[in-house]
Fold:
Amino acid sequence: MSTVTVQLFASYAETFGNSRLEVPLEDGGTVADLIKSIRSLPAGSKLPDFPRVAVNRKLAGSDHLVASCDEIALIPPVAGG
Amino acid sequence: MKSARIVERPIDVLQLIAAVEEHRYGAISVFLGTVRDTNDGRDVSGIEYTAYIAMAETEMVSILDEAETRFGVTAIAVEHRIGSLEPGQLSVAIAAADAHREPAMDCTRYVIEEIKRRVPIWKLERYKDGSHEWVDPTRTYPAAV
Structure:
């Protein structure tokens, strides 16, 4: 078991009252496992079922493997322009 | 010349144009996005823009590379401002230069549409009644009765 740091932005940062989460994740865990772990945290149930996740600044699919050294962020619906 | 930046200062449009301008070009297309004072019938007092800056700049560079592949335009500059903006202020500016107008205009259109679709930038809209809301373009609203 390791811990990964997840960056939060905008509405998701407001949901958790923080811009970062430390999330426990089994070694060899995937994006889907990470989302499950985040959703089990207090306020986690307020997230959509499948929030978008960026790994190393690229959107990642649910089966993407996550390592503790990765740069991970939850990406709320974007609204630039 | 391609340049994509998130900035925390006012956007200088003339500087952006100068960055893409060359004598071999016969067209410079410019798109400017500004803050509206109303949205969905609500009076907007301002917008707080935030971004995942590292990913946003990386994604904008990818968009400019795609625009070059699609339209053959190699001179494109884009700046998106973050921070607190008031109605009327510039939030985003795109300048694209080419020998001819059609690729330049297609390019600015493509870049703004892709920025809105996929670059991690967010808007906290503040209303004159004191309330605020995160803008979510994916949200569906109940049909009016």
